[in-house]
Amino acid sequence: MTLFLKLQLDFASREWKPFSGISGRTRRFLLLPALLATYLTGLAQNPQYLKLQPHKLLYADTVYREAIAKNDSLLLAEAYYLYGKTYGASGDKVTAHRWYLKSLKILEPRGDSFELCRLYIRIYESQVSYEESWRYILLAQGIAQRLNSYKAWVRVYGSRSNFYTIDWSEGGLKPHLPKPRFDSALYYLHKISPLLYKHRDTNSIVENMMGIGHIHKILKKPETGIKYLTNALKLATIRNEEGQKMKLMMDLADGYLAIGQPQKAWVFLTQAQKLYNRSPFNDFFIRGNFENLYYTYYRLTGHWKQALKHSENLREIERNDFVTERNAAVSRLNMEFKAEQKDALLKAQKNELALRTETLRAQQRLTWAVSALLLVAAVLCTVFFILYRKNRRISIRNAELVKEQNHRVKNNLQVVSSLLNLQSRQLVDETAKKAVEESQLRVQAMAILHRRLYDGDGLVTVNLDEFIQELVTSVIRTFGYSEIRTVFDLAPVELSANDALSLGLIVNELTTNACKYAFPDHPDPVFQIVGEKQENVLKLTIADNGPGLPAQAGIDDSLTQRKTFGMRLIQIQVNQLAGVGRFSSQPGVRFEMQFKI
């Protein structure tokens, strides 16, 4: 028997006894403003939930952290279920339903289990739709049948009993839906009893007896209800459950008052009051129930002064909750009554005034909305300006860092070139000396590239024409040639640093080879470099007017057949550019290559 069912049954059995001495017509007149105020308040205000119980929330958090640490999906489903219970206890059914659905996504694919049955019932309790509630009860009942589990059957029977106590027709407003059927609710509570006794679940037996006693009171069978409540009180006394004892004593006091035995009712009422005074309970409903019982007792025993006092206390407790709304509703009803007495002209003026008021409110809302948008726009502009300034400073800083890096690399390359130059001067072997000098020229080519990057504005790009001319001139000057005629016909192309480095090493090798093999003893040496761009392809031709390739190599010898270090270096750099290259002799050495840029 769930606490939700007990509260619902208790509410159904309550009477507005402070108004029992007033005629029905007068009572309806007094209650109408309060009901209307309650209705209007419900439309105007958001739901107010109880505070989450800290110990329950802490336990759910603990289970959740343990599930994450162990990577246990079943434990995670249990944590979601506990979160749902915690929010459901506070009255927030929407949030509870969301947590239950998260648990359902984990449990449902795993098949039947008591945990899934229990979850279906919780989801039913968070529903407001008749069809959806019934569907989840049937799902839970199917699992209980397949598992044949005691705990599952107890929960299913309890949920079905609870289901039949609900007025799904909402007082006849939805005639196609059923009204409460307390005989069916009582039937399922009786089906629970043998299961509980079989498994000696004393706490649940007490709850079940309380539920049966409540329904008998609703069915106008107070004597039968008192019997069940008395037996329940005996069990609760044995278990020393003070909360259950207090509620049972209040129920028994109400039952004895209903059958006209105020003295017996007084015994239970005073005992319940003592338990309440030393308990941590401070509940509006319990206090109101006490005042109602005291009022009924004193009215039956003829102590009208005391009855009046507790009647006023009860009205004060209830008035604190809705007096403001009731006054406002009465005022609105009075205005509407007077408005109905006016002629058509006054109604038209009122409608016009209401329209103007609504228009003014709409204009005010529009003004506030525009002002808010302007404020947001101003804030965003300020934020964007700050971000722009910050990004600009970062960009300038990055540019300075890149320049500094290129400058250091250039200086390091110059140091390496100088070291190689010193080393070559100390070498005696001509072959080793030439190898060191060639390495120096390659390092010099890289130094020229980095100087171009450092001195230029591109930082990561270099101008092809300027870079090639400086590189070729530097190599020719290194070999001491002053009469070589150089011809450059290069398209205006900006190359990335990586492409420029590979191309510079190729040009350096070809220029070095021309100075070593083509120009010595030549009367009119010419070195020509032509570069043209066709869409995104760069075609480069490098040629000299020397004696050409050795006869044994062949005029059309491919680049891949060269075995010297310089030729292998050229091949590697061509592959690095993802291009193609070819040597020919017409006469003189001619190298043609192309690659995408």
Say what oligomer this is.
single chain
Strand order of the largest sheet: 2-4-5-7-6
- Beta strands, count: 7
Instruction: Determine the strand fraction and express it as a percent band.
Output: 5-15%
Ends: how far apart?
Answer: 80 Å
Average pLDDT over all residues: 80
Largest sheet: 5 strands, mixed
Walk me through this protein's architecture:
The protein has helices at residues 3-13, 24-44, 54-70, 73-89, 93-107, 114-125, 130-147, 150-164, 182-199, 202-218, 222-239, 242-258, 262-277, 284-301, 304-340, 344-426, 430-455, 464-479, 497-518, 565-576, and strands spanning 461-463, 485-490, 494-496, 526-534, 537-544, 580-585, 589-596. It has 597 residues and is of the alpha+beta class. The strands form 2 sheets. A 5-stranded mixed sheet has the order 2-4-5-7-6, covered by helices on one side. Strands 1-3 form a two-stranded antiparallel sheet. Helix 6 (114-125) packs antiparallel against helix 7 (130-147) and helix 7 packs antiparallel against helix 8 (150-164). The two termini are 80 Å apart. 30% of the residues are buried.
Topology:
Blueprint: H1 3-13, H2 24-44, H3 54-70, H4 73-89, H5 93-107, H6 114-125, H7 130-147, H8 150-164, H9 182-199, H10 202-218, H11 222-239, H12 242-258, H13 262-277, H14 284-301, H15 304-340, H16 344-426, H17 430-455, E1 461-463, H18 464-479, E2 485-490, E3 494-496, H19 497-518, E4 526-534, E5 537-544, H20 565-576, E6 580-585, E7 589-596
Parallel strand pairs: 2-4
Antiparallel strand pairs: 1-3, 4-5, 5-7, 6-7
Helix pairs in contact: 1-10, 2-15, 3-4, 4-5, 5-6, 6-7, 6-8, 7-8, 8-9, 9-10, 10-11, 10-12, 11-12, 12-13, 12-14, 13-14, 14-15, 16-17, 17-18, 17-19, 18-19, 19-20
